[in-house]
Amino acid sequence: MAKKWVYLFKEVDETEKYAGSWDGVRGLLGGKGAGLADMTRAGLPVPPGFTITTEACNAYLESGGKFPDGMWDQALEALEDVEKQTGKKFGDPQNPLLVSVRSGAKFSMPGMMDTVLNVGLNDETVKAMVSLTGNERFAWDAYRRLIQMFGSIVMGIPDEAFSEVMEDLKKERGARLDTDLTADDLKELVRRFEKVYKKHTGSDFPQDPMGQLQLAIEAVFKSWNSNRAIAYRNVAGIPHDLGTAVNVVTMVFGNMGNDSATGVAFTRDPSTGEKKFWGEYLVNAQGEDVVAGIRTPKPIDEMKKEMPQVYRELQEVRERLERHYRDMQDIEFTIERGKLWMLQTRTGKRTARAAIKIAVDMVKEGLISKEEAVMRVTPEQVDTLLHPQFDPKAKENSKVIATGVNASPGAAVGQLAFDADTAEEWAKKEHRDVVMIRPETKPDDVHGMLAAKGILTSRGGATSHAAVVARQFGIPAVVGCEEIEIDLERREARTDKVEMKEGDVVSIDGTAGEVFLGALPTVHPDFTKEKDLATLLGWADEIAAGDMRKWPEDYEGFPTRGLMVWANADYPRDAQRARDFGAMGIGLTRTEHMFFEEERLPIVQRMILAKTSEEREKYLSQLLPFQREDFRGLLRVMAPYPVIIRLIDPPLHEFLPRYESLLAEVIEMRVKGVTGPERDEKESLLAAVEAMREANPMMGMRGVRLSIVMPEIVKMQVRAIFEAACTEKKAGYDVHPEVMIPLVSHVNELKVIQTELEKVAKQVMEEQGIKVHYKFGTMIEIPRAALTAEEIAGVAQFFSFGTNDLTQMTFGFSRDDAEAKFLIQYVEQGILPKNPFQVLDRDGVGKLVKMAARDGRKARPELEIGICGEHGGEPSSIEFCHIAGLNYVSCSPFRVPIARLAAGQAAIKHKGETLG
Amino acid sequence: MAKKWVYLFKEVDETEKYAGSWDGVRGLLGGKGAGLADMTRAGLPVPPGFTITTEACNAYLESGGKFPDGMWDQALEALEDVEKQTGKKFGDPQNPLLVSVRSGAKFSMPGMMDTVLNVGLNDETVKAMVSLTGNERFAWDAYRRLIQMFGSIVMGIPDEAFSEVMEDLKKERGARLDTDLTADDLKELVRRFEKVYKKHTGSDFPQDPMGQLQLAIEAVFKSWNSNRAIAYRNVAGIPHDLGTAVNVVTMVFGNMGNDSATGVAFTRDPSTGEKKFWGEYLVNAQGEDVVAGIRTPKPIDEMKKEMPQVYRELQEVRERLERHYRDMQDIEFTIERGKLWMLQTRTGKRTARAAIKIAVDMVKEGLISKEEAVMRVTPEQVDTLLHPQFDPKAKENSKVIATGVNASPGAAVGQLAFDADTAEEWAKKEHRDVVMIRPETKPDDVHGMLAAKGILTSRGGATSHAAVVARQFGIPAVVGCEEIEIDLERREARTDKVEMKEGDVVSIDGTAGEVFLGALPTVHPDFTKEKDLATLLGWADEIAAGDMRKWPEDYEGFPTRGLMVWANADYPRDAQRARDFGAMGIGLTRTEHMFFEEERLPIVQRMILAKTSEEREKYLSQLLPFQREDFRGLLRVMAPYPVIIRLIDPPLHEFLPRYESLLAEVIEMRVKGVTGPERDEKESLLAAVEAMREANPMMGMRGVRLSIVMPEIVKMQVRAIFEAACTEKKAGYDVHPEVMIPLVSHVNELKVIQTELEKVAKQVMEEQGIKVHYKFGTMIEIPRAALTAEEIAGVAQFFSFGTNDLTQMTFGFSRDDAEAKFLIQYVEQGILPKNPFQVLDRDGVGKLVKMAARDGRKARPELEIGICGEHGGEPSSIEFCHIAGLNYVSCSPFRVPIARLAAGQAAIKHKGETLG
Lengths: 916, 916
Prior knowledge:
The structure is a homodimer. By secondary structure, chain A is of the alpha/beta class. Helices cover 48% and strands 17% of the residues of chain A. The longest helix of chain A has 26 residues. The radius of gyration of chain A is 34 Å and the shape is elongated. Chain A starts with 5 loop residues before the first strand and ends in a 7-residue tail after the last helix. At the A-B interface, helix 26, helix 28, helix 30, helix 31 and helix 33 of A face helix 26, helix 28, helix 30, helix 31 and helix 33 of B.
């Protein structure tokens, strides 16, 4: 028996049995097909139909364009069943069945693939439609739409070939809108469209309905591999081997008169997340009229008055769908002569803000658990929410030049680009910030939209193509800005008051739907006002802290909770922000940043150039009070949480003038024959800097190596840390300083310097007459340190993975050199799946991290282990840190909320897994 | 019952039972004590005595200077036994027993620790000795020796205090030699020595023999921790916790008249290894007279005439000892009034040449096995043998200014330094080559001797301190050069014909015993003439190849033989030398070296600066014939062995002028206002070089990264390799080229470039109409490559560990920067046990090597794995490579013999161990 390639919507139970799970059904039937089948099972009004599976699509594409054995027969059989259900017959000149042929993949790709409506109409059946509906105009309009869609989608005739003919006819007839055309006009239009069809294809429009159906199905299959679909999947991260299903659905008509309509809606507001019915509809229209943004539709609320009965039905459907799917739904419907038909339901795309609000609300409503809520929001959405917004004061002082629909929130500043190619080129090749402006957008424009910082259109509504794409990818957008008139030819846009040329800078506020001329300054949003986010992240923290994972039985280590989130902060103000964002410690304070401050740098330079130890000590004692004050503030802000302070790390020549500049100055003096003290000073500075030059400074004289050769600096730093800690403790703050020694490669380095420094710490505490709780530990940032972690943990009380340097040395990539010279090419060519400086490389660097964490705990079961590289704020890397059993990730303060969510999600995903 | 701290020589069976093994006995009794006990057991004439154990020494030192419980009583008991054996009594005024108190550690430390002779003499017993021996002069001489030794060694009185007094007396009496002093003179000398003793210590010389014994034992114990002993152990690699034993031995006297003598001998010639009795003796002398080099002794052969009976006895002892110990022995003996007494036997130190000859001869004699022979020679000895020698032609044309004893072979050129401190300072701080010149050397001089390239003395023989130390450490030495008169005050040396000042350059030939003025050129010795070495290395190869090690049962990998030795060679002449030295393949050919040749560099530079791909191809096609010829020679010389050719590795800017020089030139032109084409050219070259500059070139755009971005160069190289291989194969040579891709960190890099290059290889073979056997593989020199070896072995057919770069990146040490700035300090402070660029770091780098070797073979069981870093020629690293299951080590041609020996030794040491 042949494989089953075709499932009727009503066969949903059988489908689910075959597919094994609902996710399997979605994979097999696509999201749309699965939704239609599921709604059918739930007794909702769905037009009869069937789905040809994604497996059939893949078989078709693999065979080079042949339907797999049995598929067509099964489709005909299903069609017969639909005929029985509807009482109509496909191609019947008396009572013809018309169908739509719609694509539908597992993951929604809005507008990317093809749909053909009204399949089954021909010169005969159109007449039957006239007599059945008594609406000649409607029937001919449907026919002309079929020819147009079939021609362009199935046969590849340029859409303009049809629209030009239509515009000509409208001019001839003095018609302004499509609806001004009469039945006879449309009959004429059909004739003219048939000519266009013949001109481009060399043959007549196919009168055989079965032929129409077959070609339409093939067109949908082929559209899976269209360039624009492939490009979309690349960006959205959708695998290329899923294939699309084809849904053959009995046609229902929203354009049968004023008792008919078509619309799309969301069960909650996809922009704010508010629990209110939200959508748009168009009376006497077909579905694509809403999505295409050609006619501006009405808000769904108006339907309450205009079609109260249908509105009530829709409300009931809305509630049933949310209960059923336990998530916000995006639905399409058609009303045919007062009867509601559901054409689609799927999980609705939403803004970051809406995602968070809906997740939190649904927990409160008892619809979903806290874990589900945490999984419903992506770290990227949290990031989007915390993106900069326009400074309210600047907005007050600027003039809004146009307003439109606030289709996708956020602030964007950029130069106007009038088409997608220009937008992409400017953004990618010239690194310019771009706002793409178009009357409306189409699937072909997506590459430009993705490259742009913001999107601006003069037509379309909140469910238009531009709006949907912008929301999905978190690009700020203002759409349907009708005040703006766009002249694509002259590449200009104008309102009553201003004129804008291509390249002019505008600012668009996607949250407010406002457009400004020039660049407005941005500010960070006020995190404390994001109550829903705070609630959600609180749950994430709770989940991570409650997750207690054990080691396998053959290994004796302490169990480990889920990850805490700490922050990297050098100054008290950063630490305060981190704490506000929910950080529970400071994982990295870079002490050398403080050395660069204006009043300190000259002292630092004199200290470095000191010829004797005494001279060096003199300048260090001038630096001590500065450092002590730095540390006091940090420790106080973070009490009672720990603060890890890293001792000086960079090579000393970083604090001195650049060698090349000095060389140039000195050579100039030499050639000009300048003499005197200035020359002498430059010459001796040049000599000093030259003596410090290194072939590969990244792997040279820095970190613990410097401390061993020149211990005075770190001794001063440790004195400053402990003086600060003692002072704050006396003032009543429960401080926890942790001293971190960088760049250790051999345990003996740590032994030597840690012994010295602990002496200083103890001496200070004795002088001050108070003891503070402290730790000494090390960064694990050199492969050898990770490889010998067991020995190192015998000395260090904590490990902090410095994955920036660890990645450099594990890959042998100097980041400065690699990113500019070959790393981007590597990622583009797929040699590396990701830039390993952004996403932690699990196979290589991660292997070292895992080994070191495990070996370190062998020597010291209570070892505190974290990560302080940039990866600490990147969700996939955070998940890996959870898997590796780390105690915390430390990231920049602004990424703390993202990291908290990612840590919670990691705990949920890996619940019950053992460590190691 | 108290622990047994004291063993009589004759209790040797009991000692062995306690110690568990003969090595244990040597540890417990020291080498000297064990030898005396063993000779006693064998029935050889050994004066009765006993040994206080090293355990007692350690207990004494740990307790801060107390004999452990029971030790002294046991010593007294043993002394009583010795009294019974000799029929004498310690301290008896009629028939006194005299003893020597001698140090003796497990490993010989010549001259480093202390000995006191004639213990038991006092004002009473000296009289008994006079009447017993009827030799007044002898008795008083013995007494003055005791006071002198006891005073200087036990009480720390400077030796000069005694020698000055003696010199004064000799002047008063008009005596030239010590032996010119009469009995009365010596009596007077004793009185004067007693005054010296009192002056320096504040008390009288102890008349109580038991007190003498106790203090002497303590002095020996303490000498273990003298500065010079510690320094010696540091250099010789002897652990500091072994302790020394103390041997208390009945005195026998070689200075009782002309029927008495004392001597040292080797059972074979320690310089050449020839099987002939070899030694020296002094009639009417005590032992230290021979060793100290004060009187020049007679060759042992003369004894045949002078004391034929004793000579026969000695010959018999010699044969018995060699049969017993199955190795060449170094013996000390004394003849007291015609009776032979054996005072020591130990394994004799020998030159490199002797070590090899003795090992090979003893196999032929059936005394030892081939495995034992291979273990008897150290890789350092092979190295010494292959050290450069003076060019014979240059020697013919130079005048020998002095000849002496050829005490330690080899050629040395250096500046004369007249004392040890100067020698050390010049060598270590100023990196000057030094020849240390002294009348004779003492243990205090060892630090200077070790720092020197050569040693020259005017006194002493082949067993003098200078000779023994020089031989042990492989430092060329000419001793007893009596023609040279040394003036230490004026720091000058002179012969009849020449005068030399400190700092003058001399050349010394330790093999011939000749001294030249100025620097003579050196040449490499002719390996083919070293038949014994060839035999020995042949056995080492045989052992390595015959050693087949298996993986543990839970792992399916191919069994691995012991290591082969390959060589790194860039040119056919190097490859030929490597083959002559026994290399069985080329493990690394660096192709970029060829780019630097005079006629090629301009083409290379134009190729690098090419603006278009076509232009680049043009210059590459000019380079192709050069490279092809390079490879033809290499492949032909090595056939049928494999030749691994590494594709271009360094960053391209290494082929261009240095940035700093260009900058200086351009700035000068700018300041001077130079215009014209020369300026333009420099400016544009500067711009090009600037664009290529990198922050850390070691980790930048080089190796496979360069090949991916700019594949033209490596395509040319692969074409050259395969054109060469095809040509040579057509000429009848069985060539095996292997193409090595450097600096891989991710398997995809290899996949991309290897695919490209294999296409070129196949195309060339098609063009040439012949197929050659080839492999493609990679260097494992980046930590990530080692960590992901399993994936990489899916593509690569061989691995070659580049442990130079792997060490750099695993430690995060840039070698150029680290060695100059902190690495030497690290090794000196003991932070790192060894310089990891010299000796492979087993804990860190080695861990990666082991993981990668094992994981690589998981993916490809037949994977060919070797090492081509400098470590490939270093014995400890070679042993590690054997443990890790590598197939070969590749080293510089000159180190091939050393590596062959080390590989054989590794196979013996780790026989039967499983892999992994």
